[in-house]
Amino acid sequence: MHFKIALEEGFALPSSLAQNSPIGFTPANASPEEHLSTNLLDIHGHRLRQMDENGVELMILSLNSAGCQGLSDQTAAETLSSSANDYLEDQVMKNPKRFAAFAALSMHDPKQAADELTRCMTKKKGFVGALLNDFQSSGPNGNTMLFYDHPRYDVFWQAAADLRAPVYIHPRTPTPLINEQMWKDRPWLNLSVLGFANRVNMHLLAIITAGVLDRFPDLKLVIGHMGEHIPFEMYRLDHKLDRARFPNMKMRKDKLIRDYFGEQVFITTSGHFSTPALVCSISEIGSKSCMFSIDYPFESIPNACVWYDEIQLNQHDLVDIGRNNCLRLFPKLMQEPHNLSIKSAWDCGIGGLRNGETTYGLFNKSFNHRLMKQ
Amino acid sequence: MHFKIALEEGFALPSSLAQNSPIGFTPANASPEEHLSTNLLDIHGHRLRQMDENGVELMILSLNSAGCQGLSDQTAAETLSSSANDYLEDQVMKNPKRFAAFAALSMHDPKQAADELTRCMTKKKGFVGALLNDFQSSGPNGNTMLFYDHPRYDVFWQAAADLRAPVYIHPRTPTPLINEQMWKDRPWLNLSVLGFANRVNMHLLAIITAGVLDRFPDLKLVIGHMGEHIPFEMYRLDHKLDRARFPNMKMRKDKLIRDYFGEQVFITTSGHFSTPALVCSISEIGSKSCMFSIDYPFESIPNACVWYDEIQLNQHDLVDIGRNNCLRLFPKLMQEPHNLSIKSAWDCGIGGLRNGETTYGLFNKSFNHRLMKQ
Amino acid sequence: MHFKIALEEGFALPSSLAQNSPIGFTPANASPEEHLSTNLLDIHGHRLRQMDENGVELMILSLNSAGCQGLSDQTAAETLSSSANDYLEDQVMKNPKRFAAFAALSMHDPKQAADELTRCMTKKKGFVGALLNDFQSSGPNGNTMLFYDHPRYDVFWQAAADLRAPVYIHPRTPTPLINEQMWKDRPWLNLSVLGFANRVNMHLLAIITAGVLDRFPDLKLVIGHMGEHIPFEMYRLDHKLDRARFPNMKMRKDKLIRDYFGEQVFITTSGHFSTPALVCSISEIGSKSCMFSIDYPFESIPNACVWYDEIQLNQHDLVDIGRNNCLRLFPKLMQEPHNLSIKSAWDCGIGGLRNGETTYGLFNKSFNHRLMKQ
Amino acid sequence: MHFKIALEEGFALPSSLAQNSPIGFTPANASPEEHLSTNLLDIHGHRLRQMDENGVELMILSLNSAGCQGLSDQTAAETLSSSANDYLEDQVMKNPKRFAAFAALSMHDPKQAADELTRCMTKKKGFVGALLNDFQSSGPNGNTMLFYDHPRYDVFWQAAADLRAPVYIHPRTPTPLINEQMWKDRPWLNLSVLGFANRVNMHLLAIITAGVLDRFPDLKLVIGHMGEHIPFEMYRLDHKLDRARFPNMKMRKDKLIRDYFGEQVFITTSGHFSTPALVCSISEIGSKSCMFSIDYPFESIPNACVWYDEIQLNQHDLVDIGRNNCLRLFPKLMQEPHNLSIKSAWDCGIGGLRNGETTYGLFNKSFNHRLMKQ
């Protein structure tokens, strides 16, 4: 599929890469182009080439996790936020037809976060929303965790809703304290294998059950990795969220978690290139709740795109999930300086027989690669 | 789900019931209300009560198959057409919030069919499209079959496109000649079990491959019974439709059959209440191509509705398939005298917790019937 | 997947190729290796190379359709049958680890068919069952069609059951008479696009509803092309097969069509490389009813195998559908001279990390091709 | 479906109910029969009646969570273990055709756990395996958590493997320390909504990645609640479990997590009555890895059974998941004193037309409830 959009795509500041060091992620035998550090720092080179080669029109970029959330010092976090946003604006504006930006925000002070988001969305160019890396580290030893379901964050959510700035809730590495007994000797489980999703799905549900989406009906949230387990669990979540036992749970009594998906909550495919999981998600939350993403450079652009381009699925859902749903959720992408537009499946090369390939079937060895490569 | 719309729903003229006799369809031990004749003639009594009880807001009614297509005498067919349409207008206008009409058309003379369709769509009230019962019987012995892919029918398709009148292609009982050797001793296979679909799917593909949809891009076609096998066959149809072998096939060389679904071709669930088949159809042609229908009185209204209301599927697809897709395809339903409107899943009672049922889960014996009955 | 078995794979007799001429199937720009005639005649050359390259351990070969069924002259049909079987035995015995045989049978005389099948299964080597190409042409002008649900064929079905010889019901080109009005001007629909399946599914259901499978509980039937529409239609078939209306239908009154699948009726994937259709079939008839096949040389071996090898499906179903179900249905394949054996998913290279590829995930560009190529 | 087997079904000891108090789980307006305490204590009354009414032939009973795992005092835990097992043997032997037992085990001392399991499996009657409620509470304040991936538990796993006793890993309420900051103010998320699964899936993967299943290839593990998110995550788990980064992870380098499912790891449907989730699980891990269960009395027996009995799925998978897979995993159920046997779909009332209902389809209002109730 041509003209895909991807929205969980990381970059690093040259100045902060050490702090967000991905050391250990890069295998010993990796080529220079495969080094995470190189790829996080690069935007207009190898990354763009791969976007060209794999039919990705635009990436929404975000500061490498844990970003500001990893800094327990408030001043340091706020400084990183504004400098990252300034840097990212510069980068995006070098090529706004191909890149857009998520604001990086310190979440120590909700009012300051709201102000910085306002600055990005109204004073700066190229910003279409924000990305938060799970909880905010805080406290003298960095082990205090701030969660955004607390009522004091309403000032932030109000701003995000008013600004029509969707907020992506992304995972982060845990502080040492979390589950220390459980996982200190099993680091391979604690990160992207399971721990990331197990923490983010709790945080997202905490925000929803606190009534945040009810108080701010214009607020939109996004989670990655095929929904951090939630689409598969949809029945059980709603079945078990016992309103009578927990009368002080603030979420509307007359709504199910399911009801928010496709209206205020959306998922992406980042890092979970599984057709059965996508099919299950489409069944449970609808294709309008789903968007393609990669998770570059923690995932391979060709891997993600080959998977997506060869899914045997109808053209309507493919073009919506691969592109148009993202434009509907982030309408700023259809304005200056990006100027993207809704496209048809045909525009995106899904379906049809072109380029003279009017004979197919019997001897066409590539036909089962149903989606045409132009 | 409340406010469902159903669009393959039969009625009979009192004067023509004998000609379309459903004798043999009614089991010996049927109650009076279960007699096909009774139910075909009834509109505002038992039918409407069942609609009320099962959440069907509106039915689009059509003359019982084979209707005009079964009359090989052109005058008789044209007379039946106009009298059926006049009768149906009267019936629909008695309760236009609950009923709408498909025009019955003689297809002997395409120009006459176009004129009658024009009369229904512009001079009469309550008509939103037309329904044709497969081929038109013709010839002195009734064994000549007229198919609508012939270029002389372009005048009819032009009118249907100009009038924005979607055309439903419905099956019919065969003339004696068809497959005589194959099926004369196996009548149980020749009708709704397989024969209906096997003939209608051929006729539909004949129309598409003749280029009719290309010449009239505003034309919309509908087929019932979960697409008469086609969604399941989508890959193989396109894979095997060899353009090089058949250079005089008129359909656009740069399109696949798949490309027309959701744009110009739509299916309904009439008489095929299978969740695996619906899930397969959603995968292959998209939920926007699918609409709920019953096939009353050849099917039970409660059967169809209990099935649909308990499908475990996201609320977006349920409300689109159950209602809104039909309104988008037949926008006249949103105007006088029907005045229906697009509704949300919430409006239709899908999702949510209402009527005080704020405790559920642990002991709620009906929770797994996920869709709330108000 | 390594060690796949394919069972709807054609060959042609040098002496009868003209009679079964595939002229017109080969595109003008085809390379010599792509000519249908060449590929039908070849067994041990290009075909075997492609099997090696694509992980096909064994093909069960069958005479190119319409084969004996296309000969309305009984003597000619019977002569072709025995000569084809003699020729095929010779070919298979040149490499019985890689090939097995379906008997070609004239169906003019059921007793003669039974005798020839007995000769193949007991006197000859390499035969594991029979393949029939739909109805038998008969009569002076060739337009009489013989169907095998007639009671006089019981002698044949008895033999097939006693010999434990599954019978594959394969499509064929129609005689001129069939549906002449419907399809004479639309040849592109009459063959593999829809006509093949529409006729074979009727013939199969005729055999089942005639009670053949009830009278011969050891009889097994196979149909190709993902079940010739039937898995998708399973609900509607059983729903509409009204026993009260047709009291002289001989099939057991206490069984559904569905009940025979996986016990006496099986399908293959030949020529229908659609994951949504396979997933629907697994839902409706179970993975134990499904077997991989290609339909070579009317389909490309790499096309079929690339599709199958990259389906995202659990290893148990993949190895059963790709191989082991076929061995269970044709236990002669596990005896002399073939000596194949049941293999695990691991044996077949499904799952696992081998050949030193112990680092994967982050930078492994081929990981989403989940099934390992050794 | 008749003759279902359910295997995550709780009971309480009269003496220990206070300790495992389910207070708060029962809504204020519950009828006496709906009180959790009543239902946990009852075995042969209301429970058995509901089993009769809903087609459940046998339940494997287990001590109400957290059971022995909740007792941080070793002596208390071991005493509870033996007394619970003695009590359960008595109960099961009152009606061994309808009940079987999972051993309750203290996991403070792996050797003692192995000995008690041996006692249950060899000296007592009615035991077919064991059920562990996640980690073992330990330490003076009860906040130490013991996980069973530690090498010192190998003596226990060895015994379970030697005894052919599958081990069910069940969730439990957390100790106060776990995630204290995250969840102390959000108790509605910490239990069955998400917290249970998020902890059990980590514990299960810890055991697998520690190489336990490799060292004990006869060991079988079971998890409930549709696999505690794992089937949906299968691709991502294997994709992200980076062997190069974690060279001291002991699991076999040449295996994927996926490879263990259906061989050594199995799931049940307890408390997650979602057809899309079951369909996804069948795709990802195969129907042979799945077993029906209820989670009584925390779930309603009719809820679970109505859901299961009306799933539109092929008869082979239904009877395997509903019954036969369990017998294959627990072959002791097919011996004295239970003497259950493998049954066909037909035996279980799936498919077929019986009891004189030889007319169906057209007017059969219950036909879409496809599975026949006898």
Task: Tell me what you see in this structure.
The structure is a homotetramer of 374-residue chains. Mean pLDDT of chain A is 88; it is low at 356-374. Chain A has 374 residues and is α/β, with parallel strands linked by helices. In chain A, 36% of the residues lie in helices and 13% in strands. Chain A has a single domain (4-334), classed as Metal-dependent hydrolases (TIM Barrel, Alpha-Beta Barrel), CATH 3.20.20.140. The first copy, chain A, has 14 helices and ten strands. In chain A, helix 4 packs parallel to helix 5. At the A-D interface, helix 6, helix 7, helix 8, helix 10 and helix 12 of A face helix 6, helix 7, helix 8, helix 10 and helix 11 of D. Chains A, B, C, D: Keywords: Decarboxylase, Lyase. Chains A, B, C, D: This is Amidohydrolase-related domain-containing protein. Chains A, B, C, D: It comes from Exophiala viscosa. Chains A, B, C, D: Residues 73-331 form the Amidohydrolase-related domain.
Secondary-structure blueprint of this entry?
The structure is a homotetramer of 374-residue chains.
Chain A: E1 4-11, H1 36-41, H2 46-53, E2 56-63, H3 74-93, E3 99-104, H4 110-123, E4 127-133, E5 136-138, E6 144-146, H5 154-162, E7 167-170, H6 180-183, H7 187-190, H8 195-209, H9 212-215, E8 221-223, H10 230-240, H11 257-260, E9 265-268, H12 275-285, E10 290-291, H13 301-310, H14 315-329
Parallel strand pairs in A: 1-2, 2-3, 3-4, 4-7, 7-8, 8-9, 9-10
Antiparallel strand pairs in A: 5-6
Helix pairs in contact in A: 3-4, 4-5
GO biological process, one term (chains A, B, C, D): secondary metabolic process
InterPro entries (chains A, B, C, D): ACMSD (IPR032465), Amidohydro-rel (IPR006680), Metal_Hydrolase (IPR032466)
Keywords (chains A, B, C, D): Decarboxylase, Lyase
